[in-house]
Structure formats: structure tokens, C-alpha cells
Amino acid sequence: MIGVYDYTVILTYLSTISGVVGIIVTMTGIGHPYCGTLFLMLSGLLDGFDGKVARTKKDRTEMEKEFGIQIDSLSDLICFGVLPASIGIAQLRVSGILTDLGRNAERPDHYSMILLLISIAAFYVLAALIRLAYFNATTDERAEEAKIKGKAYFTGLPVTTAALIFPLTLVIHWFTRADLTIFYFWLMFIVAILFVGNFKVPKPNKKQFAVIIFIGFIELVGTLLILFYE
């Protein structure tokens, strides 16, 4: 078989499976959008450690390294690009907004709202795609720059931050009982702009990374409580 199947990519594969299942669950109506959020956070957790696991193998070939880069980006597009957009569309369905708009679709203002929300979701996925493709194309250039200047930062907002941003929105939505569905879409629009923005974001050190994991854990617990009591 073609491909790489050792332990260096197993977390990436599991993250991809989690993302695909999350999309299926949210878009088919099998489960509540919060189920999709659970899979989004799981993908984020797996993605947070896949690179560290891959780097433990010191004898990787150049092909294996390149394969790891490409498969990680493709996985990120599914998990942190398509899945959050799917959760947004599913949230529209559950909240009843999409149904209400559909009943009045013949009215220009309602038709425009449907088109706008769908366009925001599509734009979000496109921005994630552009970001991932750009950094794949400039991998060597950025690695050389890092060696020379010793820089430790991201340019623009990493797509993996979606695993922290969007679950927090839905947790707040549940606890406050405020309808944040439309806010979710505007947040997607802002995050999409940040994906392709040309600004510097410092990379987290070990302590900061631990804080990020802790925040993710709190969100995970909150989501599980929501699923249990919903």
C-alpha cells in the first residue's frame, strides 16, 4: 500500500477520523451540534501532540517528513476548517433560525440572510485552505528564517485555535441560554480574517501550552455536561 502507517502519523489519522465523524454527526442530524464540538476538541487535542510524537523518530526519511507535513495540513482543513463551518450550519438548524428564514425565503431580506450566512461559512473554509496551502508552500523558507533569526512566532492565527474558540462560544451559549447562533457566524468571519492576516502571534512556551490544554479540558468538561443534561 502507498502511504505512511507508522506511529508518527497515527495521531493525525485519528484526528482526521474525529473530524469526519464530527461533520457527519452535525450535518445529518444524528446528534446535536455540541456532539460536533466534542469531536472538534478531540481533534484539537490529538493535533496538539502529533508533531511532538512525529519528532521522536529521528530516522524519518525526507519522504516521510514531507508526507507528515502534507497529511497534517489536509487533516487540519477537515477538522478545523470544514467541521466548525458544519457546526455553524447545524446550529442554525437546531436554533430554528434556518427554518424561520426558509419559511420567508421569498422575501429579499430573508433570502439575503441565508445567502450571507452560507457565504460566511464558505469563506471560513476557504481562508483555512489558503492559510494551510500558503504555509505548505513556504515551509523551507520559513524554516531557514527561523534558524537565522531564531524567531518563535506564528504569522496570523493558526487554524488549530478553532478547537478552543468555537467550543467556548457554544458553552457560553448553553449556560447563558442566549442565542449566540448569529454571533457564531460573525465570529467565524473574524477568525477567517485572522487566519490570513499578516501579523505575529508568539508561539506558546511549555507553561503556556499547559494552560491551553487546561482551557481545552475545561471546555471539554463543559461540553460533556451539556450533552448529558441537554
TrEMBL record:
Keywords: Membrane, Transferase, Transmembrane, Transmembrane helix. The keyword S-adenosyl-L-methionine does not apply. GO terms for cellular component: membrane. The chain crosses the membrane at residues 20-46, 110-132, 153-175, 181-197, 209-229. InterPro entries: CDP-OH_P_trans, CDP-OH_PTrfase_TM_dom. One of its GO terms (molecular function) is phosphotransferase activity, for other substituted phosphate groups. GO terms for biological process: phospholipid biosynthetic process. This is CDP-diacylglycerol---serine O-phosphatidyltransferase. It comes from Pseudobutyrivibrio xylanivorans DSM 14809.
